[in-house]
Specification:
There is one protein chain. This protein is mostly helical and 324 residues long. The relative contact order is 0.06. The chain has 16 helices and no strands. α1 (2-23) runs antiparallel to α6 (94-115), α5 packs across α8 (132-164) and α12 packs antiparallel against α13 (234-258).
Length: 324
């Protein structure tokens, strides 16, 4: 029981120390915060905006841990997580995500400690389960961005047809918000709402890039902003943009087909030693106990784990090194 408590305290202390070290603000950022606070207070005194005006602003979701949210939101790590949550269109918060990760880490460490009291394996299980909420968030974020990219070309075609039919830019965006496929409709609906509230089109499009960090969308936004500054036939520019995006998607599909064997090989080579070790110990219990208890066996396990991670990283770097 003492080892379990010691391991829990060690993981908890190391997690908080790492978060504080990584996310602490630099002296330069602190000076900027002080200057911005002074400017904000000066604006409040000059224009007479008080608490009633702040109620008109859009407030973020805080949930049941609002005080803890206020404590952690000033750190850069928390701000990056909040950006990923916004891009994944998730209803969770940074505090809830952190608490889930901490609970899973403790549960993973305790479960591993019950079956094998090998500290490295216990910590590895805690890290694996603790990173599960972040992995799910990144998966949701990637899936939403990919879904947006899949319907972006169709949405641009619809936008170009609306402009040819005589719609204004705002009217064409409104039509997209009603007829475009999901999730593009929701994002263009947000742009239309911001336009109705008086936000300039440039700012609304740049905020769209923050919500959907897509290279294809960046091409579209750049084309619209350049046309707005220099003039020209926007419908024709959008047609050429659609051709570029569709050609890029076609090349990406061909690359994924040609690299599918490499990705599958990486997964098999990385999982095969672990699966075989588990199966052998299930069929013959105690077969690899010397690796867990003997000092030389433990060193071999460390070496094997390091080589597996290096091999998986190299395969992933080779397969994903081609960009379009």
């Amino acid at each position: 029981m003492g080892f379990l408590v010691l391991g829990f305290v060690s993981i908890l202390s190391a997690t908080f120390a790492l978060v504080l070290v990584v996310t602490r603000r630099s002296p330069f950022q602190q000076s900027i915060d002080r200057r911005m606070s002074s400017i904000q207070s000066l604006a409040v005194n000059q224009f007479g905006t008080g608490p009633n005006a702040e109620q008109l602003l859009k407030t973020p979701i805080t949930g049941r841990f609002s005080r803890l949210e206020e404590m952690v939101k000033r750190y850069q790590f928390s701000q990056r997580l909040q950006t990923h949550i916004m891009q994944a269109n998730s209803s969770t918060t940074v505090t809830i995500l952190f608490l889930r990760s901490l609970a899973l880490s403790v549960a993973g460490y305790g479960t591993a400690w019950l079956f094998t009291r090998f500290v490295v394996l216990d910590i590895a299980m805690a890290i694996a389960l603790g990173s599960l909420p972040y992995g799910i968030l990144n998966f949701t974020r990637s899936r939403r961005i990919n879904a947006f990219n899949a319907v972006l070309a169709e949405s641009i075609d619809m936008l170009a047809r609306a402009l040819r039919a005589g719609y204004s830019m705002v009217g064409a965006i409104e039509m997209l918000s009603e007829n475009a496929p999901h999730p593009a409709a929701a994002e263009f609906r947000e742009i239309f709402k911001q336009q109705n509230l008086g936000l300039p089109l440039r700012d609304a499009l740049l905020q769209l890039l923050d919500r959907v960090p897509s290279l294809d969308l960046r091409v579209l936004v750049t084309a619209i902003l350049v046309q707005k500054d220099t003039g020209g036939n926007l419908a024709e520019i959008l047609d050429r943009t659609v051709c570029v995006i569709r050609e890029r998607l076609r090349i990406q599909g061909e690359i994924r087909v040609h690299t599918a064997q490499g990705r599958l090989t990486g997964w098999i080579l990385s999982a095969l030693p672990i699966v075989m070790l588990v199966l052998i110990n299930v069929l013959n219990p105690g077969y690899s106990s010397i690796l867990l208890h003997d000092p030389y066996g433990q060193k071999l396990l460390y070496l094997c784990a390091a080589m597996l991670m290096i091999g998986a990283f190299v395969i992933r770097w080779i397969v994903n090194g081609i960009e379009v």
